[in-house]
Automatic annotation (TrEMBL):
Residues 36-75 form the HTH cro/C1-type domain. It comes from the Bacteria. It comes from Psychrosphaera aquimarina. InterPro entries: Cro/C1-type_HTH (IPR001387), Lambda_DNA-bd_dom_sf (IPR010982). This is Helix-turn-helix transcriptional regulator. Pfam families: HTH_3 (PF01381).
């Protein structure tokens, strides 16, 4: 039995950063319109990001760090783990 599959089965499949950002926004009772205003981006940019439809850019990651102290390294690491999982599942 492959230990990686067993380990992953126990943890569950990785999720993209957007999943955790959406959870964080909800937990903070932070709306997309308010966050958009604070971040200086459009509401649709925030909404697409939270719904996993928009790509996390370096600019947005930096703004999330400056305004909300959300670590860009963590966000990009979560996305990398998710993309790696998807790539392996295609094989």
């Amino acid at each position: 039995m492959d230990n990686n599959h067993t380990f992953e089965a126990k943890l569950g499949a990785p999720k993209p950063a957007s999943h955790y950002l959406k959870f964080w926004f909800k937990n903070q009772e932070l709306s997309a319109p308010h966050a958009a205003k604070v971040l200086g981006v459009s509401k649709s940019t925030v909404t697409r990001l939270l719904n996993g439809e928009g790509k996390l850019s370096i600019e947005i990651a930096n703004k999330l760090f400056v305004k909300y102290n959300i670590d860009p390294y963590l966000l990009f690491s979560l996305d990398a783990q998710y993309k790696s999982h998807i790539a392996k599942s295609i094989v």
